[in-house]
Amino acid sequence: MLDAEENISIKKQCKLLKINRNCFYYHPKSEAKENEEIIALLKAQYAFTPFYGYRKMTVWLQKQGFLVNEKRVRRLMKKMGWQTIYKAPKTTILNKEHEKYPYLLKDLVINKKNQVWATDITYIPMNKGFMYLIAIIDLHTRMVLNWEVSNSMNAEWCAKMLEETIEKYGKPEIFNTDQGSQYTSNVHIKVLKDNGIKISMDGKGRAIDNIFIERLWRSVKYENVYLQAYEDGISLHNGMKKYFDFYNNERFHQSLNYQTPSEMYHQNEAA
């Protein structure tokens, strides 16, 4: 029998009570403190899954070890201004009335710069909402010739990008796009026809036809966007500028014999 006045070590007390010693030292966090942690996690996860609503976010948090219910997660998301977590928006919207053009790249040997350019639009998730990113690349060298971010993706924006790129780099023999309405629009087609550029379009629903720029988007998102969780358009633009400078001038490609796109594009120019 123990003496009531006997000093018993914490270790012995826990052993007698058959509880883990960690439980003795545990102090439950206040809800306010835990909410701060949850909000930080939600912001980080949003960059990966901007299409998750409060139900899926609740399940995700529970898998991280948080004892939360849907009501609490919904309240926190609303507090952050996330009344809705948007689904990934479509970047290819067809217009049935616009003329479509055949795909010209099948079995084509692409062996020189400015032989084929390709363009595409992707969405970039941010902590609140998203923006669109457009890029034009040279397929032979993988050089990103031009890029821009915007909160819309109208035809005039795409046509202006194309005109700027032609003015700086000359014109390609072939220009490849998907069948999105901005690319089949009269304003965009006119720029191509006025410059004598052959028009090539991916087959409907065939992202593989534009595989090189799809790979670019994967690199952009996994090497930069998903790691940064941009707050707004300005920070996104500045981040993309740094990334594309890196991509063109420092990131070497195995398919280019470990040269950078810029080295490949500009080689032999001095000759």
Helical amount among residues, as a percent range?
40-55%
SSE-based structural type: alpha/beta
Note the overall shape.
Answer: elongated
Largest sheet descriptor: 5 strands, mixed
Side by side, the strands of the main sheet go 3-2-1-4-5
Average of pLDDT: 81
CATH class of the largest domain: Alpha Beta
Beta-strand residue percentage:
5-15%
Low-confidence stretches: 24-29, 83-87
Radius of gyration: 27 Å
In DSSP terms (H or I, runs of 4 or more residues), the helix count works out at 11
Distance between the termini: 98 Å
CATH topology of the largest domain: Nucleotidyltransferase, domain 5
Could you state the order of secondary-structure elements as H and E?
HHHHHEEEHEHHEHHH
Per CATH, the superfamily of the largest domain is: Ribonuclease H-like superfamily/Ribonuclease H
Oligomer: single chain
CATH-scheme architecture of the largest domain: 2-Layer Sandwich
By DSSP, the count of extended strands is 5
Tally of individual domains: 2
Describe the structure.
The chain folds into two domains: 61 residues; 151 residues, Nucleotidyltransferase, domain 5 (2-Layer Sandwich), CATH 3.30.420. It has a five-stranded mixed sheet, sandwiched between helices. It has eleven helices and five strands, in the order H-H-H-H-H-E-E-E-H-E-H-H-E-H-H-H. About 4% of the residues have low confidence. Strand 1 and strand 2 form a beta hairpin. It is an alpha/beta fold. Helices cover 44% and strands 13% of the residues. The termini are far apart. 27% of the residues are buried.
